[in-house]
Amino acid sequence: MVVDEKQGEKLPLGALLALAMTGFICIVTETLPAGLLPEIGSGLAISASMAGQMVTVYALGSLLAAIPLTIATQSWRRRTVLLLTIVGFLVFNSVTALSSSYWLTLIARFFAGVSAGLAWSLIAGYARRMVVPQLQGRALAIAMVGTPIALSLGVPLGTWLGGYMGWRMAFGLMSGLTLALIVWVLSEVPDYSGQAGARRKSLHEVFFTPGVRSVLGVVFTWMLAHNILYTYVAPFVSEAGLASDVDLVLLAFGVAALAGIWITGRLVDRHLRKTVLVSLATFAAVAGFFGLFSGVAVAIYIGVFIWGLTFGGAATLLQTALADSAGEGADVALSMNVVVWNSAIAGGGLLGGVLLGHYGVSAFPWALVTLLLLSLIIALRARVHGFAEGERRSGQMVVGH
Fold it and tell me: How buried is 204 (Cβ within 10 angstroms: 0-12 exposed, 13-18 middle, 19+ buried)?
């Protein structure tokens, strides 16, 4: 990745935090309905299961739109594309807040997901472009900090506000945040040109670039393992008598994830490969620990905290490795990451549901161990391309350091 304009070795915190706020809005917009299903169902005169499809169609919009929209907008100026995604949230969250029609609401949610799919494929490349190559990993860590904040604090707060002020007001509040973000982006975020036609790579070229498939393989197996446990964390921790303390368990996870992002920001530019391998091995060890001590409350809290540490920096590590591997095709590769990541979320829900229904929560840890060992093998084998040895320099890896 080339930095378009001469820049000093300082992190543009205002601009990077604007990208973090974009990610925060993506996550909260996606998950907000999950905590407000009864209120939404009552307001639209539908069942809770029908209200739950507001989450489904959002994810579907992201999956279907990420790759084609990223390719279609490669030549557009970057801030224009970023602002379009944010305006999309403004429009479609506002429609959701005002709509009295279930089908109009679903359409609005689908297109909000479309905005998110494009945003996620843009954020990482944008953050890397703002800084000199030696700071790209740290810049991405800051740009991704909105995700664990949204998961640990934003979603519970949005759910509380929705219950207190009404679900429509919660979506209206998201529109208000989006308006503020538009002003923030216009004042703080630099603009860059899109890619010229000669530099643009096709989907096929990017997918078969050495290292890209290895990183995507790790993305899928790692996130599939994570989402089996995260999706069904409530029944899992109930075995240890923590059914009424799921919010505290998730808070411990979120706090640890924030710490994980900070640690990753310090390590990603010099020790990307080692950090990925240690994160995967540690998560696998925690999964085995859960298998042995799943009925012990203290063990659950300890395990969840360590799990959060390993997960916090995952997006930064994986997107940095993917962008380094893809080179000029980074934006297209990152759009593939959106699809693979969301597929792993959906797969975690499906596979976890099957395991829960047939074998109970005791099967979760060993399924995780299997997936994480597979992920670790892929990462270990990708020592030349994908998760290369050495220090990152000029957006690439320098082997032998």
Answer: exposed
Q: Please name every residue paired with 398 in a beta bridge, in sequence order, or none if there are none.
A: 391
- 250 and 372 in a single domain? The answer is yes
- Contact yes or no for 217/344 (Cβ under 8 A): no
Task: Tell me if 207 sits within 8 A of 368, measured CB to CB.
Answer: no
Q: What are phi and psi of 376, to 5 degrees?
A: -65, -40
- Over residues 321-368, the pLDDT tens digits come to 998 898 888 888 888 998 898 888 878 878 888 888 889 889 999 999
Asked if residue 127 is part of any domain, the answer here is yes
| Residue 144 and residue 246 in one domain | no
Identity of residue 192: Y
Q: 210 and 193: one domain? A: no
**Is residue 7 domain-resident?**
no
Among the listed residues 42, 122, 45, 118, the one whose alpha carbon sits nearest the alpha carbon of residue 78: 122
Degrees, nearest 5: CA angle 80-81-83: 65
Tell me the sheet residues that pair with 393.
Answer: 396
Helix (H, G, I), strand (E, B) or coil at 396: strand
Give the percent of the chain with pLDDT over 70: 93
The answer on 58 and 171 residing in a single domain is yes
**203 CB-contact burial (10 Å; exposed 0-12 / middle 13-18 / buried 19+):** middle
Residue 1 confidence (pLDDT): 40
Alpha helices (H) along 294-387? 297-312, 314-326, 330-358, 364-381
Residue pair 311/303 in contact (Cβ under 8 Å)? The answer is: no
**Do residues 77 and 170 share a domain?**
yes
Which pLDDT score, from 0 to 100, does residue 155 have? 64
pLDDT digits (tens, 9 = 90+) for 56-67: 888 889 888 888
Q: Please tell me whether residues 190 and 46 are part of one structural domain.
A: yes
Please indicate, yes or no, whether residues 142 and 273 belong to a single structural domain of this protein: no
- Asked whether residue 390 falls in the same domain as residue 243, the answer is yes
For residue 401, is pLDDT > 60? no
> Cβ-count burial of 45 within 10 angstroms (0-12 exposed, 13-18 middle, 19+ buried)?
exposed
- Output the domain CATH number for residue 62: 1.20.1250.20
| Structural domain harbouring 150 | 13-199
Total tally of structural domains belonging to the chain: 2
